[in-house]
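Page 37, continued from 36.
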């Protein structure tokens, strides 16, 4: 059975072209930076949440 979420180069180019048309070349770097910051904050939050559950007393 083939994986449905397998993206190749043609699909990524098409997604990039659509993003370029929708947002324009000036806003794409800001958008990418914002998405990267959001992902980083999510990872830090998940890591902090996991460490908080480890600190709790099981009793």
């Amino acid at each position: 059975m083939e994986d449905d979420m397998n993206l190749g180069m043609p699909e990524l180019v098409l997604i990039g072209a659509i993003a370029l048309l929708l947002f324009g070349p000036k806003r794409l770097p800001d958008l990418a930076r914002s998405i990267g910051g959001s992902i980083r904050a999510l990872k830090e939050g998940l890591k902090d949440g996991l460490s908080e559950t480890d600190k709790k007393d099981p009793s």
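The chain has a mean pLDDT of 84. Flag for discussion at group meeting. The two ends are 46 Å apart (CA to CA).
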